[in-house]
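User: Structure tokens for both sequences below?

Assistant:
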Amino acid sequence: MSDLNADFVQSVERLFGNRATMALAALSQHGHSEVHYEDALPQLVVYAHNTEEVAELLKLANQFEVPVTPYGAGTSVEGNALPVHGGVCVDLSEMDSILAINQADLDCTVQAGVRREQLNDYLRDTGLFFPIDPGANATIGGMASTRASGTNAVRYGTMREAVLSLRVVLPDGKIVRTSQRAKKSAAGYDLTRLFVGSEGTLGIITEITLRLHGIPETISAAVCPFNSLGGAVDTVVQIIQIGLPIARVEILDSAQMRAVNRWSQLSYAEQPTLFFEFHGSQAYVLEQIETAKLLSHENGGGEFSWADKVEDRNRLWKARHEAYYAAVNVRPNAVGWTSDVCVPISRLAECIELTQHELAEMQVPATILGHVGDGNFHVIFSIDPTSVDELRAVEEFNKRLISRAVAMDGTCTGEHGIGIGKKACLLEELGDDVVALMRSIKGVIDPKGIMNPGKIFDL
């Protein structure tokens, strides 16, 4: 890693003042990942406040050919925001203004640094909410960049469906808006979808226009233990196949439930478990519940434990959202490694069953959980970071799991993105020609290769 050009640094400092820093604490914060990847520090961190500042910075970076890595909340788990080639890290967390709420149109426009929970707190009095819920209190810009998903995806979709329009700064500093606010459009190439999921490799997303939804009249959540993981998975598959419009359905295996009880000080049955949530009118929710109960009981499910009050639902989903930390911390000083495969719903039971059998032979503590309503599940390992053998064993397991999912016409990543960890998997899944096409697109938009280099594929 070469030193930054002095003229570049001086120009950035003139532009940003004390919001440009080379302090080691800031560099360390922006070069660290919560998971198993090694730290990779930038040489300069800049805190941007608006699109125009980002544009001026990228003009300078493009001129001096300095690598640029966008950064939001730092919650990504595939090293997506690690500045592996150094350079400048653009922190967008202070771009946290909610710019417009179009209540009649059920949409809003926010800056990239707005957090998911912040947006929903702001929306509460409007009767609207933003449903994409990846668990972490991520920034909206980061969620768009990684095409995030989460617990509500089975009913409300992912960021791919939620984003209507983007304001993006291109590598040369040009500012573009990818579309208007209309709910549909056939006007040219779908540039919005091109940038959603691009992980900052094509430009920096600074503003996002999002679909919103009305807060349901009735929301009811429940927890149901099962005799077997297979019975829980079969229940979910049947719920989806009959078209029951369930809002959330999450699976946690017995090891994950033990970890959750310990971490969140709860007392759920330590069996394979489904977390449900139902949205709609009171009568419609009752109808959904009765169907879900019937299917659950036919597949070895126990009694439903209900959470109807807001505070009870929040406690239940807080425990689910903390499941990653619960799984990693089953032993001290561990780091996490999480898989992210997604398969067609008809192959889900088979994929999880084969994965469970293989995990039984592993010596590294691991749990299974996931958004199984859309075929997406995770294996979370608690790894001793000093053990080369453990890291190698988990890496080989993850390769086998991805190959299994791809063979089932699935994907290596349902929601976490490629980052630095799954570049070879992208080639396995899509092939050389498709990845070459992606490289061609990158080369046209970012000919100097300054935008988040080292992510998705190598140039």
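Moving on to the next sequence.
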Amino acid sequence: MQTIYKAEFERGSRPDGREQFVVFLLETARKLKTDTTAQYALYREAFDRALRRENFATVAETIDELERTFDVDGYRLRIHLLTEASKAARTPAKRLPLVEFAFAMADHAQAADHPDEIAKLVSVIDSHARSIGREARSKFAGRLSELRKVAEELVPVVAARQQLASDPADAAASLIDGKYRCFVRGDWEPGLKLLAQSNHAALVAAAKQDLAGAANPEGQAAIANQWFDLGMADPALTGALARARFWYTQAMQAAPALERVKLERKLEQIAAVKLPPRLQDRPAAAAPKLASARELLAGQPAAN
């Protein structure tokens, strides 16, 4: 690219030509429909140069265009933008939209099951919130407190996953990550496998029985009963009731009338607990799509 566009690159190296050179890079990238390699290289050059010039609106525009054309990690590009924009923000007016930007990224990180990212974003929010005025801080206080709590609760989960990366059979780490996946995220398939190799005898038994499955109402109800008893006995395992609900519902389909009455009562008891929406009888939902980088930079909420 530097050989083909030698004159333009030379002009772009001079102080009076740098801004216009970024415009040239973007305009040229948009035209190179048949050479995707060159197109990508020009977009990334525009991204890097706009970032160095603290032209964050152009950086956001470039991210959006890259996402429309290429399979890129939009989350990482947005985090890069947020990090550099945060360093450059020197007034409350510039920091305020970045707080909303960081909240949107933290919400996405939580939904995407990236707990290690949340603590970093809490730090970004906290640093901006201290300087945006008392009224604005009070507006964000509740959300920041909840996010900080989530980040603290996820510290052992992150540590457990690091341990499992080096020792996939570690029983203690399997318990921590398995409980999080099952009872917080509702991500049962990988979570049950972890619980089955954990050091919690009751959860090991329930998980193994669940993984073995059952084809008749009696067996399905027996699996449900194990989860029901665990969820009712220990507040830390309340999420187990979601799995009990799943198996009771399965058993209801072919159970005799008298047995269905008993199963319905169990389901009513579970309904009374009011489990969080994420603990549904389906795989954990994918993270919602992030809003465009331009919208996030302006402090607009992420799109669902």
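User: Anything stand out in the second?

Assistant: The chain has three domains: 1-72, 73-166, 187-273.
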